[in-house]
Amino acid sequence: MKIRRCSVLYIESREALAIDWSALFAGTSTLAASTEWIALVPHLDREIGIDATELTVLGAISQTVWSERDACEQRLDAPAIARLLAKGLLIGDDAEHAAVRERDEVLRAAHWRPMAALVHTFSRWTDVRSETGMEAPTFQELLDTYGEPPPPTLELGAPGSGVKLPAPASGLLDETMRKRYTGRNFDLQATLPLAVAARLLQRTFGAQQVRRIGDSATILKKTSPSGGGLHPVEAFVLVQRIAGLTPGLYHYHPIEHELRPLRAMDAPEAAATALQMVADQQWLADAPMQVVLVGRAERTFWKYRNHHKAYRALALDAGHLSQTFYLLAAEAGMPAFITAAINDVEIEQMLGLDHLRHAVIAVCGCGPASGARDMAELRYGETGTI
Ligand SMILES: Cc1cc2nc3c(=O)[nH]c(=O)nc-3n(C[C@H](O)[C@H](O)[C@H](O)COP(=O)(O)O)c2cc1C
């Protein structure tokens, strides 16, 4: 049997602090610190404790070249090798280790920058709800807890040395940009007209032009810019109240301009799904349409292989699409929202996505405002606290 190390492995020295009761009674230091090694591996999607012997073994086995297990056991600690195979940190080439090997191969094939794979994997949320720690403090509560934030701008250069610029001329986008705001008081009775949803989806996520390159490759022109022109971010739509559509999950096809049904739901299930997606932010879940922005890492990393900036570009792509979505909603007289405070893992499960290939980045949504101001909003021209 041959073995090699998993492709992406980071080791964290983690410290746990505890009260040292014997020291407390003896009148000396009361804080006891203990450290342990934690292996962070995206292919297993969990943290794994290891000991010092296992750490040494991991550092002595190639992640690229397959080595004979017998030969490794002669030069390294054999029981530690067995433990690391059982933990999935060493990969075996036999049938017994096929499941872990398959996950490691998915990771290798996706061309992630290792640090990015780590950040993405371990920044995902699962089952975050109001009871499990989801907090939404107001600005005033933050001020009360943390004191003054850093000032709103940088103040560089000598006072009075700034070059005053002319007042901006009016432009076509002004009105729409000023109408844009994040809605947190959606009208639960309102249904989004299908034509409005269709325009929002097509003008934000749809292909404005399809170009062939070579024999079979295709690139899309959209209304937002995209790193490498690859447009890796796809839209999955949770319909709650859109005229003529059954509630449930759909994939928006950007070339065909159609919603492809993934799972039909009744209205209560769609509402519960929305709430779970946005980690109990009821003020966002009330919107009649939610759109999950999913970055197809494999498409971006096809060009930007093992690239320092690729993951950043993926997130920026989603941000651009969100702003376009907001502006189109404002044009239609509606507020919109975006949130990254989402239960990524549950969203992956409901959409059948593998986080190593498809990165759930954010959830957007929009709909008519109710007119109430139960939750804070920051609308242009208004005053007051948020
Ligand atoms: C990346 C990002 C994440 C956000 N996350 C949340 C969120 O979790 N919940 C929420 O209510 N608003 C969220 N917002 C909306 C901001 O709070 C909002 O944009 C900000 O308060 C300014 O208000 P405005 O959009 O109306 O100008 C998010 C915005 C961005 C850009």
TrEMBL record:
Alphabetized SUPFAM superfamilies for the sequence: FMN-dependent nitroreductase-like
InterPro entries reported in the protein's UniProt record: Bacteriocin_Proc_Enz, Nitroreductase, Nitroreductase-like, SagB-rel_DH_2, SagB-type_dehydrogenase
Nitroreductase domain location: 178-367
CDD domains according to UniProt: McbC_SagB-like_oxidoreductase
The protein, known as: Peptide maturation dehydrogenase
Species of origin: Duganella aceris
